[in-house]
Amino acid sequence: MLQHDVLIVGSGLAGMRAALEVAQDPTLDVAILTKVHPLRSHSGAAQGGIAASLNNSTDQDSWELHMYDTVKGGDFLVDQNAAEIMTREAPENIFELEHMGCAFSRYDDGRIAQRRFGGHTEPRAVYATDRTGHALLTVLFEQLLKLGVKVYSEWYALDLIVRDGVCQGLVVYDILTGQLETIAARGVMFATGGYGRAFRVTTNSFASTGDGIVLAYRAGIPLQDMEFVQFHPTGLQGSGILLSEAARGEGAHLTNADGERFMERYAAERMELAPRDIIARAEQTEIDEGRGVTDLRDSVFMDLRPIGEERIRYALPAVMHLAKDFAGIDPLKEPVPIQPTAHYSMGGIPCDVDGQVRLKDQEDRPIVGFFAAGECSCVSVHGANRLGTNSLLEAVVFGRRTGRTLRNRVKDLDPTRITEGDMVDAVAEVDRFMTGHGDQKVGAIRADLRDLMMEKCGVFRSQALLDEALGGVKDLQERFTRAAIDDHTTTFNTDLLDALELGHMLEYSELIVVGALTRQESRGGHARVDFPTRDDEHWFKHTLAYRDEDGPRLEYSEVNMQPQYRDPYPPEERKY
Ligand SMILES: Cc1cc2nc3c(=O)[nH]c(=O)nc-3n(C[C@H](O)[C@H](O)[C@H](O)COP(=O)(O)OP(=O)(O)OC[C@H]3O[C@@H](n4cnc5c(N)ncnc54)[C@H](O)[C@@H]3O)c2cc1C
């Protein structure tokens, strides 16, 4: 058995930022465990920027305005105590990252540059051209190397051990050798990222398969607001690869087959800089009503040419190269076909503003020694729809806070104990594929799941579609009981990992669908054609899915309306 004081699963921005904070105390032994090399974590793919009211290109901005935009952007399902903390702490976090060496883009006078992003009233996106995530991730990784933090790179977390409300540690799998191990830790933190891979068209990396949230769910922890999935309006047609919102922030237009800037009809004031849920629905409506472009008529155009060549080359090099490399289109010369693409997971593991995971039951008990931050968590700063650039911010602000909590509290936690018995479930899960036989292929089930979720639980939803989605997920879950893999060797067995990940995807997809079926209203990223308006009287509340013997059981909890330093923003009509 391996042992650490603190074990962090996930080496994206949230996990690394937390580890750095724990490592400030040299008497604490902290390790990170990650299924991909740290620098391949999805955070590194982030393009557009990270929000903070620095006021560098305006003097109108404030954390209050940032908080208001965030609450409104999230269609008022945002927990306002958390949004307040995130927006108030944003500037100091940015300066800290700058001092660590992050090469943010700048104005000629040396100040950090800021640009516009959807749903933000003021230009507050801090960026490193359109490779912001990469810049941040490499800087944090350097800091971890400097401090000598132990990294289990290409190890897979398989099972979370919780006994009597206390987290004991993990069962993990060494991808290189195929060995199962246990790691005991007084403090375990999940920073395992999002769950967008359940959709056919997605911006998410192959690793974004919701492992962490399902491990937590299986350990008896509820998952919150799973039905809220963000569809980003500008994925490359077909693949869904992201073209950053920074393109629209810099002035790109969206047009339909008639050459019309159709956002005029959906958000006349903000146009292409309305929040993502609104633009994704506008695009889908244009496509559904026959004004789509290309032979397939399944997309609309994003035209970068109004930005001008010089600025595109300087501020959007990645966008330019992605369009060329993956669609063969030169955005300097012609518009790029784009479509809504599954991008961000608003739901996740419920935790408080210090990263402490909570059961959210009557007594709101904590799971002692278990923490979460970043996209896998749901501290609910994004509510029903996240604003662009708020997620990198969430990862660093709450990664840092959770790291501090761990540093301060972990010495008071009792040493944990893992026994041979704790490995039984994980061993059985692996053995099932390594020794078993079956007539179903993992790849085929996964492809069917991703089609199903895209078509029946996508940008627009309805009772009829969701009923089909639920039936479909259950059929796929049944097929999965008969799934087998071809590779039974132990070295770098990606067949096995695919199977384990598919098990997770099938489990949380059911929660997305059940949450969406039950929520009879439209709010943020969840749009029901049969319930087209927001219904605060019945649905101004968070969804919690608990795992019962016979399937998920839904409960609901209140939205936090208690910021500390100002009055809360009451729900209002959301217009742009
Ligand atoms: C293409 C793209 C562009 C984006 N651009 C922006 C942007 O400009 N601004 C913005 O604010 N947000 C952006 N986002 C969102 C933002 O990047 C993410 O929400 C954020 O980076 C998530 O960070 P994280 O630390 O929570 O998780 P991630 O960076 O996703 O890291 C997850 C980690 O968990 C590990 N892991 C997962 N499961 C296991 C397991 N079973 N065992 C071991 N390890 C595991 C992975 O190896 C990985 O290290 C973008 C997202 C995408 C997909």
List keywords for this structure.
3 domains, FAD/NAD(P)-binding domain, alpha/beta, 576 residues, Methane Monooxygenase Hydroxylase, Chain G, domain 1, eight-stranded mixed sheet, 20% strand, 22 strands, binds flavin-adenine dinucleotide, Flavocytochrome C3, Chain A, domain 1, four-stranded antiparallel sheet
Give a count of the beta strands, DSSP E runs of length 2 or more: 22
Strand content bin: 15-25%
Summed over residues and divided by their number, the pLDDT gives a mean of 97
Cα gyration radius (Å): 22 Å
CATH architecture of the largest domain: 3-Layer(bba) Sandwich
Structural class, judged by helices and strands?
Answer: alpha/beta
User: How many domains, in number, for the residues?
Assistant: 3
Shape: globular
**Distance N terminus to C terminus?**
55 Å
Let me know the largest β-sheet: 8 strands, mixed
Bound molecules: flavin-adenine dinucleotide
Helix content: 25-40%
Could you please describe the fold and organization of this structure?
The protein contains 15 helices and 22 strands. The chain is α/β, with parallel strands linked by helices and 576 residues long. It folds into three domains: 2-48 and 130-229 and 344-416, FAD/NAD(P)-binding domain (3-Layer(bba) Sandwich); 232-342, Flavocytochrome C3, Chain A, domain 1 (Alpha-Beta Complex), CATH 3.90.700; 422-534, Up-down Bundle (Methane Monooxygenase Hydroxylase, Chain G, domain 1). Strands 1, 2, 6, 7, 8, 9, 16 and 17 form an eight-stranded mixed beta sheet that branches. The chain has a four-stranded antiparallel beta sheet with strand order 11-14-13-12. It has a three-stranded antiparallel beta sheet with strand order 3-5-4. The N and C termini lie far apart (55 Å). Residues 9-15, 33-36, 41-43, 45-50, 132-133, 156-157, 191-194, 203-204, 207-208, 211-212, 242, 344, 374-376, 388-392, 395 line the site of flavin-adenine dinucleotide (FAD).
